[in-house]
Design brief:
alpha/beta, Isopropylmalate Dehydrogenase, 2 domains, ten-stranded mixed β-sheet, two-stranded antiparallel sheet, 12 helices, 12 strands, globular, binds 3-isopropylmalic acid, binds manganese (II) ion
C-alpha cells in the first residue's frame, strides 16, 4: 500500500485541537482510498520553548526535510513567548528553508455558511509570495532605548522571487476563470512595487490568454469587500497577501474556514499545510475551535500528494456537513461534533 510520511506540528492554543480533528478525517479518507498516512508528531511550540529555550531543536528543519508533507496547527502563546520570537523560531523559518514560495489561500463560502457580505458567489484564489518581500528579515536597530534610536526593516524583492510567484499565479489563472489581479502599491513605493508591475507586464505578454489587471493594494482590499465576485486569482507580496487573506477569511465567515497551503512548487522540499493562522488563546482548550479550515488544509495536502480523488471526497464531506448546518457559525458546534459529522459524511 502506498504510504506518505506526514510531520504533524500541532503547536499552540487551538492548534492541537484542530490538528487532531483534521488528522482523524484524513485517516478516514486514506483508509477508504487505500493509501496510508504515517504521522510523526513533533511537540514544537511555546511550551517546548519554555522547556528548552527553542521553538524547535537546532536540527528541526533538517528533521522535517525527509517528510512528504507537514501539517501544522498554529504557533503562538503571546502570554509567555513574544510572537516575534515564536513565529521566527518555528513557522517562518520552515516557509523559507523549504522554499515554500507560494502560499495559497482560497476564499469562498461553504454551503450553509453566511458571511458578513451580501455577495455570496465569490471564489477567490489568493496567492501570497511567502519567502521574501516585507518578511525578508533584513534590518536592525541601533541606539536602542535612546532618543536617537533607529529601526530599519528592509523589504527585499528579487527578480527570481517576483517572477516565480507571478508565473505561479498566471498558471493558476489558466486553470480557473483566466483572470489575474496583480497587487502592488506602486504609486507610493517606487522601486520594489514598480519592479513588480514591470514583471507583471512582461509575463502578461507571455500569458496572453490570461486577463491581467494591476491593482493598488488599498483598492484591492476595498474590492474584496465591495465586489468580491469580480476577482479570480489574486497575486500579492508577502505582507500585502497576509493582510488581504485575513479579509478573505473574514468574508468567507471567519478564520475557522480559511485554509492554506505553503507550497514548494518545485518539490525540492516538503510543503506545509495549515489553517490561516491563529492560535486563538481565548478559546484554547474549550473544545469549540472550528476544525474546518484545518480539514480543508488537509484536503489541499492530499491534493498536493497526488491523492486528488480523496481530496475531493474530503471537501464533499465538509460541504455536506456545513450544508446540514453543522459548523456554520463560530462556537455553535463543538470541535468533536463537527469532526464526527465530517467523518460520518465520508463513510
Ligand atoms: C499567517 C500569519 C503569519 C504570517 C504570522 C503568524 C507570522 O498571520 O500565516 O497569515 O504573517 O504569515
Ligand atoms: Mn496572517
Amino acid at each position: 500500500m502506498k504510504s506518505y510520511s506526514i510531520a504533524l506540528i500541532p503547536g499552540d492554543g487551538i492548534g492541537p485541537d484542530v490538528t487532531a480533528a483534521a488528522w482523524s478525517v484524513l485517516q478516514t479518507a486514506a483508509n477508504h482510498a487505500g493509501f496510508a498516512l504515517a504521522g510523526t508528531e513533533f511537540p514544537w511550540s511555546c511550551k517546548f520553548y519554555r522547556d528548552t529555550g527553542r521553538m524547535m531543536p537546532e536540527d528541526g528543519v533538517q528533521t522535517l526535510r525527509g517528510f512528504d508533507a507537514i501539517l501544522l496547527g498554529a504557533v503562538g502563546w503571546p502570554a509567555e513567548v513574544p510572537d516575534s520570537v515564536s513565529l521566527h523560531g518555528l513557522l517562518l523559518p520552515i516557509r523559507k528553508a523549504f522554499v515554500q514560495y507560494a502560499n495559497i489561500r482560497r476564499h469562498r463560502l461553504l454551503p450553509g455558511v453566511t458571511g458578513p457580505l451580501r455577495a455570496e458567489s465569490f471564489d477567490i484564489l489568493c496567492i501570497r509570495e511567502n519567502t521574501e518581500g516585507e518578511y525578508s528579515g533584513a534590518g536592525g536597530r541601533v541606539h536602542q532605548g535612546t532618543l536617537d534610536e533607529v529601526a530599519v526593516e528592509t523589504s527585499i524583492f528579487t527578480r527570481a522571487g517576483v517572477e516565480r510567484i507571478l508565473r505561479f499565479g498566471f498558471e493558476q489563472a489558466r486553470t480557473r476563470r483566466g483572470k489575474l489581479a496583480s497587487v502592488t502599491k506602486s504609486n507610493a513605493q517606487k522601486y520594489s512595487m514598480v519592479f513588480w508591475d514591470e514583471i507583471t507586464r512582461k509575463l502578461a505578454a507571455e500569458y496572453s490568454d490570461v486577463a491581467v489587471t494591476s491593482y493598488h493594494v488599498d483598492a484591492l482590499a476595498a474590492r474584496m469587500i465591495m465586489a468580491p465576485e469580480s476577482l479570480d486569482v489574486v497575486v500579492a507580496s508577502n505582507l500585502f497577501g497576509d493582510i488581504l487573506t485575513d479579509i478573505g477569511a473574514a468574508i468567507q465567515g471567519g478564520l475557522g474556514y480559511a485554509a492554506s497551503a505553503n507550497i514548494n512548487p518545485d518539490r525540492s522540499a516538503p510543503s506545509m499545510f495549515e489553517p490561516v493562522h491563529g492560535s486563538a488563546p481565548d478559546i484554547a482548550h474549550l473544545g469549540i475551535a472550528n476544525p474546518i479550515a484545518t480539514i480543508w488544509s488537509g484536503a489541499m495536502m492530499l491534493e498536493h500528494l497526488g491523492e486528488t480523488a480523496a481530496a475531493g471526497r474530503v471537501m464533499k464531506a465538509v460541504e455536506a456537513t456545513t450544508a446540514r448546518g453543522i459548523g456554520t457559525a463560530p462556537g455553535k458546534d463543538r470541535t468533536e461534533a463537527i469532526t464526527a459529522a465530517v467523518v460520518a459524511a465520508l463513510t
